[in-house]
Design goal:
The chain is α/β, with parallel strands linked by helices and 162 residues long. It has helices at residues 6-16, 92-96, 104-112, 134-151, and strands spanning 43-48, 52-54, 70-74, 82-84, 118-119, 122-126, 156-160. It has one domain.
């Protein structure tokens, strides 16, 4: 069996849509910041890229390009108030149980069990993909999210990709 040449196929696909060759991010080092206290004393936030939004909010446009929208949820948001707007993955299971892609109830359980110290007052949904302006993410969107996490005194974030 021949390996799928994913990067070549992806580059070819985007060139056919008129995009310049993609400049892949290459990290020669990755900063690792150890937790400053034990996990059972840390405040945790969550970020999903699964296209989750509130039922009463404008849905994500799964076909949008360079959509840097970031939805903010109060940590008390009930799973029944959330919906998935993404067509790049099969989310039938997550439609039945949002915790598959936005495990807010699992996070609450970990807090109640004392595994984590507390839950951030806010969680996030965004960075859905189809973002071709990497520099905007690196220089603007990600630092803006980091500032919000700092304002909420978050020690660590659970990243839940779609």
């Amino acid at each position: 069996m021949e390996a799928i040449r994913y990067v070549e196929r992806l580059n070819s696909h985007y060139r056919s849509q008129g995009f310049q060759p993609y400049q892949w991010t290459i990290n020669h080092d990755a900063p690792l910041t150890p937790l400053s206290r034990p996990l059972n004393q840390c405040r945790i936030a969550m970020l999903t890229s699964g296209g989750v939004s509130r039922c009463d909010a404008q849905p994500f446009n799964p076909q949008a390009r360079n959509d840097l929208r970031l939805d903010v949820f109060e940590s008390e948001a009930l799973p029944g108030c959330l919906v998935i707007n993404d067509d790049y993955y099969d989310h039938r299971d997550a439609d039945r149980d949002i915790n598959c892609i936005f495990p807010v109830e699992r996070l609450r359980e970990l807090s109640a069990q004392g595994v984590i110290g507390s839950i951030s007052p806010h969680h996030y949904s965004g960075f859905m993909g189809r973002i071709y302006t990497r520099s905007t993410v690196v220089n603007e969107a990600a630092p803006a999210l980091a500032r919000r996490l700092q304002e909420d005194r978050v020690d660590a974030a659970a990243l839940v990709p779609a």
